[in-house]
């Protein structure tokens, strides 16, 4: 893994963590959840995921798409495991948790992929540094 890709990963994760920290500190619903019949869609979270992966792709310039997808999938795996650990009936099964969050997971992965692709393209357009 190149230094640029590693820095892109760090920047993307730091961006998402700062957003989550701001949500925790504010005590508000900054995630802007949109309730649908298929579960909740975190509009703010989707925008942050897109922006974070855009930044990561811009820094990495190349080979960041699959890493962005992996980062988003790993974060969702952590969320699902946490939900299962604290779940109360009727949300205490993996199938129920996945059913309620499937749309948000798919949209998050799509936002991560699209952000990384756009970031890589923008990164190729900027002049190469002297390093």
What is the structure about, briefly put?
It is built from 4 helices and 2 strands, in the order H-E-E-H-H-H. The chain has 131 residues and is mainly alpha-helical.
List keywords for this structure.
single chain; 4 helices; two-stranded antiparallel ribbon; mainly alpha; 6% strand; 131 residues
Overview of this protein structure:
This protein has helices at residues 3-26, 43-60, 65-86, 94-125, and strands at 33-36, 39-42. Helix content is 73%, strand content 6%. The chain has a two-stranded antiparallel sheet with strand order 1-2. The protein has 4 helices and 2 strands. The protein is elongated, with a radius of gyration of 16 Å. The longest helix has 32 residues, at 94-125. The two termini are 17 Å apart. A hairpin with a 2-residue loop joins β1 (33-36) and β2 (39-42). α1 packs antiparallel against α2, α2 packs across α4 (94-125) and α3 runs antiparallel to α4. It has 131 residues and is mainly α.
